[in-house]
Amino acid sequence: AQKITQTQPGMFVQEKEAVTLDCTYDTSDPSYGLFWYKQPSSGEMIFLIYQGSYDQQNATEGRYSLNFQKARKSANLVISASQLGDSAMYFCAMRDPLGGGSYIPTFGRGTSLIVHP
Amino acid sequence: GAGVSQSPSNKVTEKGKDVELRCDPISGHTALYWYRQRLGQGLEFLIYFQGNSAPDKSGLPSDRFSAERTGESVSTLTIQRTQQEDSAVYLCASGASVTNYGYTFGSGTRLTVV
Predict the structure, then answer these.
(1) How far is A67 from chain B, CA to nearest CA, in Å?
(2) Sheet containing B65-69: which strands, arranged edge to edge?
(3) Model confidence pLDDT, tens digit, residues A30-60
(4) Is B105–A102 a contact, with Cβ atoms under 8 angstroms apart?
(5) Nearest residue on chain B to A94, judged by CA atoms?
(6) N or C: lower Cβ tally within 10 Å for chain A?
């Protein structure tokens, strides 16, 4: 069963505007972590932001913020003031403990973001 | 080194040949992961090493795939008798097993089987 769902294969946004990338997840464990990564055309995976399941506040890192709605099991990434350099693939990932204590991040299929000038 | 190093960056091989991919994690990172990313797809988990524990091989797609890691150092992913469907980018990541700071990825090895 897929644990991470990113329903938007592609998104477009005007430069300087905000954009929200959706991510929903599925886990029965109360302790888990959620990550967002950016993958530009160069292929590198760049860590953006982390949200722990017990964190009381939504995570923020510069222009990135995470709209964490625990009851709905969603962890949407909000990018404010989009820049042309934000054009990339964005992956949501979840780490939850599996049997035996393994912590293996599971990734969604990704959302392609294109920022228009 | 400062980051996760993978080699080679590109590999073209003939169908049926064996290939070996290398990952040099960040020093001190106990967890090491291998993922496969096919063109336009997400990351597919292959194998996970945590310290000196037995690796989690649950993601390996077939017995042609194997991986080793000595302690908390270099890891090698071996694909025997390569097939065209093995063509993908193979990504390695390292980090603390439970971390709030994400996992650091290497630049990947782009494998093309012809």
Answers:
(1) 17
(2) B5-7, B19-24, B75-79, B65-69
(3) 888 899 999 999 888 999 999 999 998 999 9
(4) no
(5) B102
(6) N
